[in-house]
Amino acid sequence: MSMKIGFSILSHKTPDIQFEALLNQLSTYPNYEIAIHHDFNQSDFNSKVIVNKNVYLIENYVQTKWSHVNNIRALMKTFTHLYQQNCEWFITLSANCYPIKSTKQITDFLEASQFDAYIECNNIHSDHFDFYKYFRQAFNTAYLFSIPFFRKNGTFYCKPIRKKRDPNKIVFNDNLIPYHGSDWFIINRKTMAYILSNKELIDTIVSFLDDVNKGADLNVCPPEVVFQTLIGNNETLKVNKNTYRYIDWTDSINWHPNILVLKDFDAIQQSEALFARKFDATLSMDLIHKINKSILDK
To answer: 80: buried, middle or exposed (CB in 10 Å: 19+, 13-18, 0-12)?
Structure first.
C-alpha cells in the first residue's frame, strides 16, 4: 500500500465551493486521511461535502478563534486521530488552502524526503525579526491593567501597566528555548510521535501563553510558537525551515495574507511550493480552475 498522508484542517465557516474543491483534490491521493476540526459554535457544517471521502469530523470540538490557545487544542485532536490512522506524513492546512503541485509530485516529494519536518523555526531570543523583542517582553512581563492616557495631539488611549514575571514562572529558559514560525507545516510520523508524547509540556506552554495573551498590548500566536518550540528544541530531528507554501504578504494588512487571484498564476506555477493560500470562494475560483487544468490534471 502507498504511503498514507494525513491532512489536518481547522475550519470555522460553513464549507463553501472553494473548501469543497480543496477536499475533492485531497481525495485524489491513493492513501489519505483528512481530519477536520470545525467550530460549530461559529457556523454549521454541511456534511454533504465529505460524503464518500476519508474525512473524520472531530466530535468534541472546542471554540476557536484567531491567535487563541484553543487552536492548539483543536490541532492536537486532529493530530491524535491522524496518528491513530497510521498516517506517515502530516500536513496542516486551512479551508482556504489549495495544492499547487500534483498528487504525484507531492507524494514523490515526501517519499524522497531526507527531513523529519518542514517547519519554520526561528529562535525568539535572537534578533531574526525586530518584532521578537515584543515576544520577549510578553514572556518576561505580566499584564496587570490599563489606565487612560492622552497623547500630545490630544487623542485618548489606554496605557497597559505590566510587571516583571517571577523567573521561576516563565516556561521558557535555557533548556526550553522559544521558537516561532509559520503555523503551516509538514512533519513525518517520527516528529508527530514526539509531539503527542509531550502533551503535558504542550499543556504547560499553552497555559503560559494563555496568560501571556491576557493583555491587549502584546499577543503571541500559540500555533506559531508551541510546535515550533517543541521541534526546535529537539536536536534529533532533521528540520528544513522551508514550509513549501506559497503565500503573498506584499503590502498585506491586519496580519492576513493577500487573496490569490488569476494574476498570481505565473508566480504560483514557478514556485517550488506544494500548497498555497489564501484562496477565496468568490475571487479565486478562476485561479483554482486554471491550477486544476494547467498543473493538477497533468
So the answer is: middle
